[in-house]
Structures are given as structure tokens and as C-alpha cells.
Amino acid sequence: xxxxxxxVALNFGGGIASVADNGGTIVGSENFGQxxxxxxxxxxxxxxxxxxxxxxxxxxxxxxxxxxxASVSTTAKYGSSGGIISVVLSGSTVHIRNTVNEGNxxxxxxxxxxxxxxxxxxFVAGGFVSISExxxxxxxxxxxxxVTRYGSKLRGCAGGFLGYVGTEGVY
Length: 171
Hints:
- By secondary structure, the chain is an all-beta fold.
- The chain is built from no helices and 24 strands.
- The protein is about 0% helix and about 45% strand.
- It has strands spanning about 1-5, 5-10, 10-15, 15-20, 25, 30, 35, 40, 45, 60-65, 65-70, 70-75, 80, 85-90, 95, 100, 105, 125, 130, 135-140, 140-145, 145-150, 155-160, 160-165.
- The chain is globular, with a radius of gyration of 14 Å.
- The strands form five sheets. A five-stranded parallel sheet has the order 1-6-11-16-21, with no helix packed on it. The protein has a five-stranded parallel sheet with strand order 2-7-12-17-22, with no helix packed on it. A five-stranded parallel sheet has the order 3-8-13-18-23, with no helix packed on it.
């Protein structure tokens, strides 16, 4: 699958999918379209697993052999942006492998997408995943994009691979 169109979302936005809330697999997909909104990812906006654990074990959500080529940015207060996924929620198990982010990731732009160093917009930016509160495994993957968290009014963070890691862990 390939997306060439720009994605503008009020809440969750993703270059390939906005929300995966009951498991799923994305394989061999590419995003070429800029993604902008509150919680945005170059491939997937929100990884959230609402069901019971897979009886055979394994991952709830898998992203494999995919590439984000485009920029990802948040223009919302407390928003987050990730080159591959914006948010991995608690209770989710996500496995990312053989995947690349080539797009720049920004957090803290004004509502028109212009850099606003005095903005209250944006909170967390990650080259691969902005916020992970679930179980996240990343293997054989790389970030080639710049990660920038603008804004001076809020505490926030930025990381080349992960912006913020919560309680369940990254492997």
C-alpha cells in the first residue's frame, strides 16, 4: 500500500491508518503524504488493543517492512507526533521490524503549520514512536529524519527514536 495524499486530522492521523484498536498488521506500506493533527504518525496514528490477549500469544499490532518518507507534525496542545506511530497505549503489544522513518518529525507548530517558538502547541516528538505506554518491540529499524520539539510554554520531550516511554517497556 502507498499513500501519496496529505493527511490532516483533528485527533489521530496516520499516513496508512489512523487507529488500530483491535489488532492488525501493516506490511510493505509506504507513506509519501505529510501528516498533521493532534496525534500523528507517519504510518499509524494510534495503536490501541481493546480485546483479550491472543490465545496463541504474539503481537497485537505488527508493522513490518514499511517506510515513512514524509514529515509528521502536531499542531495541538499536548499533541504528539511520531515518524512511524504517535501513541502506543497501555495494554497494547506492538512489534515494529524492518521499518524506516525518513521524514522529519515536528511538535509545536502553530495551527497553520508554521514554527512558533512561543507556542503552547505540541508536547512530545519521536523519530519512530512519540509515546509508548504499552509493550513495544523494535528490531532492525532506523530513523533518518530530524526530530524537533518547538514551544516554550509546556514541558515536553523529543527523542531520535522514542519521545517518551511509560511503564510497560520497550524491547
